[in-house]
């Protein structure tokens, strides 16, 4: 099957600090792909290099059949770790703002309902709870009907019910053909969602495969134990 | 174009909601015009000097506060970076910001002139065409300085500091609020360093019937400040703090 994202020999340093060292991996269509690793492992830098908001020192990124990511931004959804909302902006305004940047978008009223934010339409984003804001940022990443979406720490700050809701929604979108690239620190989430994972530390791949393979190979009882086992081994 | 209009509408709503731009950019100058008008009474020369000075307040507060503060705020919130990963560009958002602030400045100036005409019988003696042309020259130069502040500051705090350092002395000493004519020599000398002082001098001159030819030096100065600032801004501008 054709790759929807292929990263080859990606490298990025900040001064003397090497954030990403020679990273290579592939993401297949309709996969939910998880990039895992401790804080500072280079996950966000990897996403930024793929999206070219940071220029990699070396390496090739092929995305949706091109090496020029700018050409395919219409088909890519992005949720960065930090919230970007202007002061005093309302939920409906931020939805309109993001919608206006793309050719073809979902009806945001409908999506807000699906995300349980329908009654927050006229609320200021700053007045939302942390979980609601997080859901909104996932929603905004999906507004432009992307083929591939990047979700950086997608459920940080969500309560257990809200996390399950977002998971169910993502699974649904996957069935409809969406490819998802995510980072997460929650191994239950990764185990539930991901078809393929790559574990990195200090910018290097430690292990990759399906969650089941990782558990089996590490001879640990759970994915969380396997994760800790591999990180410990790497240090 | 669809995105530009949508974003402009949202930005205007946001700046009305945020209000300080409207307060300093529109309400303060209109209030000041009314106050000066009452103080000067029938002294038409004074009123003709005051109008061009007061209309420059709107340019200054939108250009030296509005633009740099919003741009560095959007950068630190990563909104510019968010725009980088869409089919459009952060330049779209920046140009919307520019236009929003220009609209505030224009409304402010229009209201100041209207107040002066209606209540104090102000008339423009000189050429309206030159006046409008030079008004936009002042906008160009001041907004250039604003963009430069936005570009060189590496955090929102630096932007805040730079804005205050540049804005407040200009606000008080360039002749925008306190008439240049009544300042002691020392203050006039300080005042002459500020680009806005020259902007106001030119506008005053035109307002009172002098011709553009008499102001080639300050016009050249404002033009060069604008050009230099914009060139540097474009060279050092970053969408994201490293």
Task: Provide a descriptive summary of the structure in words.
The complex is a heterodimer of chains A (235) and B (242). Chain A is an alpha/beta fold. Chain A has one domain: P-loop containing nucleotide triphosphate hydrolases (Rossmann fold, 3-Layer(aba) Sandwich), CATH 3.40.50. Chain A contains eight helices and nine strands. A six-stranded mixed β-sheet of chain A has the order 5-6-7-3-8-9, with helices on both faces. In chain A, helix 7 crosses helix 8. Chain A is globular, with a radius of gyration of 18 Å. The model of chain A has no long low-confidence stretch (mean pLDDT 93). Chain B is mainly α and 242 residues long. Chain B has one domain. Chain B contains ten helices and no strands. In chain B, helix 6 packs parallel to helix 10. The longest helix of chain B has 33 residues. The radius of gyration of chain B is 18 Å and the shape is globular.
Give the CATH class of chain A. Alpha Beta
Q: Average pLDDT of chain B, to the nearest integer? A: 92
Shape of chain B: globular
Biggest pleated sheet of chain A: 6 strands, mixed
Share of helical residues of chain A = 25-40%
The fraction of residues in strands of chain B falls at under 5%
CATH level-3 fold name of chain A = Rossmann fold
Features:
heterodimer, A: alpha/beta, Rossmann fold, three-stranded antiparallel sheet, 9 strands, B: 242 residues, mainly alpha
Which helices and strands appear, and what pairs or packs with what?
The complex is a heterodimer of chains A (235) and B (242).
Chain A: E1 5-14, E2 17-27, E3 32-36, H1 43-50, E4 58-63, E5 76-79, H2 91-99, H3 108-114, H4 130-142, E6 148-152, H5 160-175, E7 179-183, H6 187-193, E8 196-201, E9 204-209, H7 211-218, H8 223-234
Helix pairs in contact in A: 7-8
Chain B: H1 2-18, H2 20-40, H3 44-76, H4 79-84, H5 90-120, H6 128-152, H7 156-173, H8 185-191, H9 195-207, H10 216-236
Helix pairs in contact in B: 1-5, 2-3, 2-5, 3-5, 3-6, 3-7, 3-9, 6-9, 6-10, 9-10
